[in-house]
Amino acid sequence: MQTTEEHLRALMIDGLNGDAKAHEALLRLLVPLLRGFYRRRLRGADDDVEDMVQETLIAVHTRRATYDRERPFTAWLYAVARYKMIDHLRRVGRLRPIEDYDEWLTAADFEASSIARLDVDDLLQGLPDKQARAIRATRIEGLSVAEAASAEGIGESDVKVSVHRGLKALMGRVQGVLR
């Protein structure tokens, strides 16, 4: 069975259009993807991994109406999975510090593992230019805050504030999709 973005997205859309077999096939294909996602993050907690997979499948089923057909499916899926994981970590008292969270959004392997290819330009397009440039420089190109500030001719604190506000806006957008 295929697990490409296009195939998964097509199954999701067919399911939204009332094709129960497509929806069932989609959920079956998501199981190994979600297991891998959670195993990489919840090391040594196999029972938790299976619980998280089931919770996420239920969320995909119950929240499927929130999926925007114009967006990549896997980006939506992994956003749902991340929120389920955060809820789980809060419940068990193992939530990571918030500083790590913004890196999940911009990490090079943003679950892009040959499936989810987010178009960074599209993501940053909705932000003010200054914020988008600061995020691109520090989080994508790997410049230090000092280097980004020097390249833009602005202060380091201005770069930090722009990155913070830009990431906050992106988080708000993702949360809006899930509600």
From TrEMBL:
Pfam families: Sigma70_r2, Sigma70_r4_2. Keywords: DNA-binding, Sigma factor, Transcription, Transcription regulation. The keyword Repeat does not apply. The keyword DNA-binding applies. GO terms for biological process: DNA-templated transcription initiation. Residues 28-94 form the RNA polymerase sigma-70 region domain. InterPro entries: RNA_pol_sigma-70-like, RNA_pol_sigma-70_dom, RNA_pol_sigma70_r2, RNA_pol_sigma70_r4_t2, RNA_pol_sigma_r2, RNA_pol_sigma_r3/r4-like, WH-like_DNA-bd_sf. Residues 118-170 form the RNA polymerase sigma factor 70 region 4 type domain. It comes from the Bacteria. GO terms for molecular function: DNA binding; sigma factor activity. This is RNA polymerase sigma-70 factor, ECF subfamily. It comes from Sphingobium xenophagum.
